[in-house]
Amino acid sequence: MTGRFPSLPLLPPDADAEGVIAATGSALAPPGAPQPLRADAARNRTRLLEAASGLLAECGAANLTMEALAAAAGVGKGTVFRRFGDRAGLFLALLDHREQQLQAAFLSGPPPLGPGAPAAERLHAFGPAVLRHERDHHEVILAARTDPVRPYRVPAARLRLTHVTMLLRETGASGDAELIAHTLLGSLDTALVHHLVVGRGMPLDRLEAGWHTLVDRLAPPR
Fold first, then answer.
1. What CATH number labels 36-85?
2. Residue 76 neighbours by CB under 8 Å, 6+ apart
3. Which residues of the chain are in CATH 1.10.10 domains?
4. DSSP code, position 64
């Protein structure tokens, strides 16, 4: 992050997925987003997302437009815009459920990714889990990136940063744990992973090995 942007406050070290998204009902909605939907509105949103998922599988993210979704769901285009705001908002909504599943895995799932393993082991498990998540959803994640700063401000990003910072502190890593966490998370960036795997032809195993090397150097065992 550059000096033009204020540092985001870290979430409480014991934050859980429900606590992080309580204010917005979403893991990926930006701060200040509307409150959770009423039951009927939530059902309508789910139907739209199901239609969007079908279109995504058929034609890919590049061809998933608000107009196409409205036609597939049998609603007016205005309804789609009111529900998601814009195309980036639609992609964020599609990603939200899968992001919450990832959060649940590293916050409360089985070790070594979840609680119960030493902090260093959890750090080693965290990178490959995120790498696979970013690889599997890279098309939608990249399509949602219309604002270069937005990915750092959503609750999901803040939670990842808090989680890695907490684990670094538990390992006794020297230096600024929050900045080290940013460095580690930077190696998992979706655009970078996509470039290395698709553009450079690197196997995901190589990226995972790189993560383990970074963890060992930045948070060496005590």
1. 1.10.10
2. 70
3. 36-85
4. -
The distance in angstroms from the start CA to the end CA of the chain is 29
Burial of 160: CB neighbours in 10 Å, binned 0-12, 13-18, 19+: buried
> CB 69: neighbour CB atoms within 10 A?
24
- Find the mean pLDDT for residues 54-77: 87
pLDDT one-digit tens code per residue, 131-177: 998 888 888 887 777 776 766 777 888 999 999 999 999 999 989 99
Q: Tell me, what's the pLDDT at 14?
A: 44
Question: What's the mean per-residue pLDDT of the chain?
Answer: 81
Q: Which CATH superfamily does the domain covering 86-222 fall into?
A: Tetracycline Repressor, domain 2 (1.10.357.10)
Q: Which of 36, 34, 27, 35 is nearest to 153 (CA)?
A: 27
Q: Quick one: tokens of 55?
A: 């279109």
In this prediction the pTM is 0.70
Handedness of CA 15, 108, 113, 137 (dihedral sign): negative
What confidence tier does 4 reach under pLDDT thresholds 50, 70, 90? very low
User: What is the amino acid identity at position 36?
Assistant: P
Query: Residues 126, 120: contact at Cβ < 8 Å?
Result: no
Helices (H) and strands (E) in the chain, counts: 12, 0
Ranges for all domains in the chain classified under CATH 1.10.357.10? 86-222
